[in-house]
Automatic annotation (TrEMBL):
The keyword NAD applies. This is Malate dehydrogenase. Its cofactor is Mg(2+); Mn(2+). Residues 263-522 form the Malic enzyme NAD-binding domain. (S)-malate binds at residues 409, 453. It comes from Formosimonas limnophila. Residues 75-253 form the Malic enzyme N-terminal domain. One of its GO terms (molecular function) is oxidoreductase activity, acting on the CH-OH group of donors, NAD or NADP as acceptor. It holds the Pfam family Malic_M. Divalent metal cations. Prefers magnesium or manganese. The active site is at residues 98, 167.
């Protein structure tokens, strides 16, 4: 049985509204009642039939980018069919609507551009945001980027809005966030990407980036207008550059319910995988961690690994002593001149290196692994291939079972190819990658490669926050999300080498994470709904791709 809803839209307008359009699935009665009789083929189809045809069309596109363009067009024409199609083929299509193909789409965005989507804030419109937002429907969620630190591909200007669209598609698929009530937001400050500035098709603001006071003046205005119009909505910061991500998160975290996906979501994801890889944390406190990359992702991971170790009984100081963070200049030490604030927490004093041997001022990757006896490598540097055979050989000297998380995206920036990691460790490593990889066959065994991507947590965080009506997003909710996700990796799954659940479990896992986050909001006293209300919001997805029967609302 379909639900019945009353709608006002009629005629062509109804067929052109992607949220309401049903295409060939409009019944004969609806076609008459809404003035669209004669505009559609005579045959009335079910959603399943539409999905089957769409899948046939999808398969005819040869390249991932063409498949992306097709799916985006479908999404802009009929949201229900789009989501039903992706849901039915999630393993096949996630790499298209999301990482890695979304990275290619972002780079080509001004060339593949068709339909307008989302909100674009610029220096020219930020003072009129109250008026502008008044024309938008209700929103419960925004994914916001300034597009300066997209995946590992840097400043992508206007194209960056597509990462927000990709993340929101996942929210709708796995957390049941109504696509009509979520908004991708691009803060278009211009771009310093020369290729884009010189591209005749480039659609963004064709100027170098606004920085400094003006940058914050514009974001302040956006946050004020957003909060006024949608006071309870959740805001996810995505792919800001490291030079602003930490400051932006801190500036607004108590102003609107908000979190940074790259810092916090990635941190929770990495911790979850590490817990799973160490039998739910049993041997986690024995490991020595090296994080390669000290940006939003790397520092976020270091923070969350520390929180996880503290939860398992270590003191803050003991935990930090086991974590070594490197950036492009080597191991981060407290005596480095001009050391950025966000790196300070994980800087070791030089006195920690009393018995170390290393050649130049800061130990490099191999020297750190050797001297600190590193057993876990976490790659968030965006440096493809940087975990080479020499690096892996060095880790093998410290442990028989290295844990190697090559989390950089997209695929070509992965620190190590899974097949190399398995081969160089003779099948002994637990290997995780940020982008999807096929299983690896080695000496008669199939090694599954867990996908350590924040998609395993951010939709659950969003659902949990919404279910509890949380006023703020607290750090502890991230730790809860991590522990909850880890329990979703069965021992059978871990025995195949994977420290993350299969992507096909994403729906189930997201619900589990959401529950942990919502419970935590209650415990911390930041929830604003009753427990019964929370339970009912967690019991089923608010939105699923199916059609309702329409009745005309003449009011
Ligand atoms: N798997 C996930 O869920 C996930 C989440 C967030 C980020 N990431 C990935 O992590 C990577 C970094 O993202 P970010 O947002 O932190 O970027 P970022 O620009 O903020 O940080 C990159 C860091 O890497 C350092 N770096 C550069 N060259 C290095 C080298 N040779 N050795 C060590 N460090 C080096 C830089 O100094 C910087 O500290 C990207 O590829 C991104 O896709 C993955
Ligand atoms: O977008 C992704 O696939 C994960 C992450 O947020 C990233 O920036 O790489
Ligand atoms: Mn990101």
């Amino acid at each position: 049985m379909q639900d019945t809803v009353k709608i006002k839209s009629r005629g062509r307008t109804l067929l052109e509204d992607p949220y309401l359009n049903k295409g060939t699935a409009f019944s004969i009665e609806e076609r008459r009642a809404f003035g669209i009789e004669g505009r559609l083929p005579q045959r009335v189809e079910t959603l399943e039939e539409q999905v089957a045809r769409s899948y046939e069309q999808y398969q005819k596109f040869a390249t991932p980018l063409d498949k992306y363009v097709y799916l985006r067009a479908l999404q802009d024409y009929n949201r229900t069919t789009f989501y039903a199609l992706v849901m039915a083929h999630i393993e096949e299509m996630l790499p298209i609507v999301y990482t890695p193909t979304v990275g290619e789409a972002i780079q080509e965005f001004s060339h593949i551009y068709r339909e307008p989507r989302g909100l674009i804030v610029t220096e020219d419109n930020y003072q009129r945001l109250d008026e502008i937002l008044a024309s938008y429907g209700e929103n419960d969620l925004a994914v916001v980027t300034d597009a300066e630190g997209i995946l590992g591909i840097g400043d992508q200007g206007f194209g960056g809005i597509a990462i927000c669209m990709g993340k929101l598609s996942l929210y709708s698929l796995t957390a049941g966030i109504d696509p009509a009530r979520s908004l991708p937001v691009l803060l278009d400050f211009g771009t310093d990407n020369k290729k884009l500035l010189e591209d005749p098709f480039y659609l963004g603001v064709r100027k170098t980036r606004i920085r400094g006071d003006k940058y914050f003046e514009i974001i302040d205005a956006f946050i004020a207008a957003w909060k006024k119009r949608f006071p309870k909505a959740l805001l996810q910061w995505e792919d800001l550059s490291k030079s602003s991500a930490f400051e932006v998160l801190a500036r607004y975290r108590d102003v609107v319910p908000s979190f940074n996906d790259d810092i916090q979501g990635t941190g929770a994801t990495a911790l979850a995988g590490l817990l799973a890889a160490t039998e739910q944390g049993k041997t986690l406190p024995d490991q020595v961690f090296l994080v390669s990359g000290a940006g939003a992702g790397g520092i976020g991971v270091a923070k969350q690994v520390k929180n996880g170790l503290v939860r398992l009984g270590l003191s803050d100081e003991e935990a930090k002593k086991r974590i070594y963070v490197l950036d492009s200049r080597g191991l981060i030490l407290t005596d480095r001149e001009g050391l950025e604030d966000y790196k300070m927490e994980f800087a070791h004093p030089r006195s920690d290196l009393a018995n170390w041997e290393f050649a130049s001022k800061n130990p490099n990757l191999i020297e750190t692994i050797r001297n600190a006896k590193v057993t876990v490598l976490l790659g968030l540097s965006g440096q493809g291939g940087s975990f080479d055979q020499k690096v892996i050989d060095e880790v093998m000297k410290n442990t028989p079972r290295p844990i190697i998380f090559a989390m950089s995206n997209p695929t070509n920036l992965t620190e190590i190819l899974p097949k190399d990691a398995i081969c160089w460790t003779d099948g002994h490593a637990i290997v995780v990658t940020g982008s999807p990889f096929s299983p690896v066959e080695w000496k008669g065994k199939t090694h599954q490669i867990g996908q350590g991507n924040n998609t395993f947590v951010f939709p659950g965080i969003g659902w949990g926050v919404a279910a509890a009506g949380a006023r703020t997003v607290e750090a502890e909710m991230m730790t809860e999300a991590a522990f909850a996700l880890a329990t979703q990796v069965t021992s059978e799954r871990l025995a195949t080498g994977a420290a993350f659940p299969p992507i096909t479990d994403l729906m189930k896992v997201t619900n589990h994470v959401a529950r942990a986050v919502a419970e935590c909001a209650f415990r911390l006293g930041v929830a604003t709904v009753t427990r019964e209300e929370m339970e009912s919001r967690l019991a089923e997805r608010d939105w699923v791709p199916k059609y309702s029967t329409y009745e005309y609302d003449p009011s």
